[in-house]
Amino acid sequence: MRRRDFLGALAAMAPPNNHPDPGFRLRDVTRAAGIDFVHNSGAFGRKYLPETMGPGCAFLDFDNDGWQDILLVNSMDWPGHKRRRSTLKLYRNNRNGTFTDVTRTAGLDVELYGLGVAVGDFNNDGFVDLYITCVGQSRLFQNTGRGTFVDVTAKAGLGAHDGFSTSAMWFDYDRDGHLDLFVTNYVRWSEKSDVFCSFDGRQKSYCTPEAYRGATCWLFRNRGDGTFEDVTAKAGLLDTSSKSLGVAALSYDNDGWPDLFVANDTQPNKLYRNQRNGTFSEVGVKAGLAFSEDGRARAGMGVDVAYLDDAGLASIVVTNFDNEMLGLYRATKSGAFVDQAPKTNMGLATRRSLGFGCFFFDANLDGQLDLLVVNGHIDETISRARHDVTYAQSPHLFLNEGNGSFRDVASLIGPEFSVPKVARGAAFGDIHNDGAQDVLITTNNGPAYLYRNEQSNSNRWVRVKLTGTKSNRDAIGALVKYESGDLKGSRTVKSGSSYLSQSETTLTLGLGRRERVDKLQVLWPSGQTEEYHALAAGKRYLITEGKGITQQ
Amino acid sequence: MPARTPTVIQLVGLGVTLGAVAVFSIFTLRQLDGLRRLESDSVDRSRRDSLQLIRIQNNLTQLGLALRDMAEGTEPYPITGYKPEFDRMRGDLQDALSVEAQLMPATRTPAQQEMLNNTFARFWGEVDHLWTVAAQGQTNEARALIRTRLESERSTMTTVIARLLVQNSEAEGAAVQEITAIYGRVEKNLYVLLAAVVAAISITSALVILHDRRVFAQLSRLSEERKELAGQVISVQEDVFRNLARELHDEFGQVLTAVGVMLQRVEKKLPDASKQREDIHEVREIANQTLERVRSMSQMLHPPVLDDYGLENSIEWYLRQFEKQTGFQVHYEKIGIGPWIGDTIAIHVYRILQESLNNVVRHSGTTEAWVKVAYSPASLCLEVEDHGAGLEGKPARKGLGLIGMRERAELLGGQMEFQKPAEGGTRVKLVVPLPAGGVHE
User: Among A233, A234, A240, whose Cβ lies nearest the Cβ of B66?
Assistant: First the structure.
């Protein structure tokens, strides 16, 4: 047998679907869309810890026109080292694939050392408001409904809270119909308390969080009158040992009350069980989420929660440092979580990457939730110390192949997507209203990237936007279960998740080749349940709590 | 010598080897069992206990950090705000302590255990007191309580736990030493076993070899004896033949010659053409013929020419005789000049030639033969060849003649070969070494 024949025969023996086409591409449309944002970390050589952390981003529909707009958080130069002005950026969707920078007119061209963002309509006026986490005082910007925002931090009672705030999340923990606010804080740091850390004893390098004391997260209860009350201690969340970066809500005990998962850096992750009386109890260790499978506290960064199958059991993804793998904690029937990543190729694929933003979304609209993870090191000199780790790193996109197996297709969905970057925030949203979820990625001290999701597999979808009436207006915390033929899926409306970022709250239900959603069930945060039938594929629906469904 | 077979020796050797392996295995298994017990009982247990102690220590550190934050008042929350964290850690500590109590090593004294429990009880007592004071709004008193009492209790707990950890690690060290000793013993036993097995195999092999050598020696002696016997048989035969030939020639020959002479004398006295004379003549003829026959027989049994003129001439004489008697044409070739080859060698070579030619007559189915005698100082080479039917198929049962030829060749220390000439037929080749300096009997 000739060698070529032999190799040919070998190739023929390989499984036929070894590298099937993922069915979609992510094409870089940043420039074409008019997104010219560049993050300013303020770094001037002193290597302050916050410089490496940001920024976050968000998809939101601030003008309620049904098209996803973009918000990009920015930091700024440090006092005494002023070189340029840098503000966060708000881009309005022009409904033709391009965006217009409306920061100034929206009144958001304010300088702050921003890191993350949470989008939610805290006053239930129908317009989403913004909470920008900062080093120092974080800010609440209220949407006036006329295309502008007003800083209501102090008025809302959120002032006098200086911190190194990272991710934030709107959720209704007491289910009173008003969105409450959870803010994660990293460590106790200020310019004055900055510590000198160094690899070589001479040059300063960025410190690991071990150098600083932890800081408690904050829970602000929405009184329903436009003001908030700090209930951190009252709710049993005061914990000055944690060094938190990511937060997600889930109902891990399936009681309909939102529990909290907090990803901590070098400290055990925390799972706060909602005790339905305004307080939480911490059960992270018991639930198997605090540590890695070998019992170490890892460098938790980003986090997301999803129902990956119809078993009604949540899966939690946590991105970690390089050499740690990400954690893919899957709930078991007993209520304890087990990290599946070491057993799957996901663990191997993420061993050399330092992950930040991450989220589950249906990239190819086949009805299975896929996982996107963006990476980037914090130390630009890392490749000098570690030959197998780089500063800029390629993202991962794990395609869910059903039966719990994932395949990294990042390198197969267009060369632009896998370009190594020092990525931090990540969010998804459908900017074209074509059913495909596009991706927004921010990089530290660099540009933001907008990737258009181009489907090539003719998979179908249904998009659903929920509006609460008894529940909070954004319906954050709502659970949607849908059935289409043999396909069953669950999606939640959520704030928080990923890292410093927020994705759109409109739900995309992938259908594969199926023509319609046969049954759709909404479990509103208020406790109300509604059921709808026969939703046609390729259509967008608006469901208002207690009022029914309309096609947009 | 008694016939002890090597099988017995081998079986005994195998038994010894298997015995050694069995004994060692039992011993090793017992050692390993001990090792396992030691590891699970003390090392594993001690490690698991240490893990619990580390868990406790970690909680104490967390409590320390919380106490520091509480004392400093850096957070805008009341001191009671830390209660959930403390409650959670209290629960975890209680759990850790109860697990630890089950795993604690045997070296722990009741006094130590009591001290541990008392320390923790005192600390939580102080903590409860703290909540009461803090709930009454006496923040400064609460902070003072933290700095004075709680911190010192916490550091006592830390010290106690640290000491227990050291104790565990010492116990582990001792266990590890014990384990190393067991490994050492097992290793030593392994060497002993190895030595025993090697010795058993060596002894068995040596005995078998010794036995084999004895058998071989016996065999070769038997072979020698048999050869000697064969030689004696042949030489006895030759003696008999020679004596018989001499008797025939001397006694009967003389008698018959005398009878002939006497008959001739009688014949001459009788009138010519008389009936008696005719009869006498006839009788004389018979006597002469008998004499010829006796002489011929005598020569066949032991040609006197061999004794008188040596091998070389005997061969030539015999070949002439052979041609005359059988009508065969013999092509004779002689290479080299033969030394005097005396009786002992000569008679055997002569007999081999005789037998070979007889075979040619019997089996070849031709009327031609080739005889070659080559002399060299050290050896004699005789070749008898025919181009007839050859020996194939026939010597399935080698005739007594062939065996006799071989015996004679062996007696002479020479070699017999049966070859197949290119023309077909058979070639008998005999090579006989000649003693240096010729042979003189």
Answer: A240
